[in-house]
Specification:
The protein is α+β, with helices and mostly antiparallel strands. It has one domain. The protein has 2 helices and 5 strands, in the order βββββαα. It has a 5-stranded antiparallel β-sheet with strand order 1-2-3-4-5. A hairpin with a 7-residue loop joins strand 2 and strand 3. The termini are close together. The mean pLDDT is about 90.
Length: about 80
């Protein structure tokens, strides 16, 4: 299975390409994620799976549209893992 994949998700009224890279192969599932903002700047953050099984962002000062698609980002990872 590839440790890198990308997925287009609607966020902030736009279709955006989110790039995922698995960071660890241990028991804690963690992914590095990057995406461009509206000005073309690269936003970089991590997603980790919490104790309740939910994927959460670890970055700070991210636009609201990133937090608004946490569930979609987590679903994309789960889809990739089950493929």
């Amino acid at each position: 299975m590839s440790t890198y994949f990308s997925k287009i998700i609607k966020a902030g009224q736009r279709q955006r390409e989110f790039n995922f890279r698995r960071l660890s192969a241990g028991p804690e599932a963690r992914y590095h994620v990057d995406v461009n903002d509206d000005k073309g700047n690269r936003l970089i953050f991590n997603l980790i799976k919490d104790a309740g099984g939910q994927w959460k962002t670890t970055g700070t000062d991210l636009p609201e549209w990133v937090y608004g698609v946490e569930g979609d980002l987590g679903s994309s990872i789960e889809e990739h893992l089950s493929a």
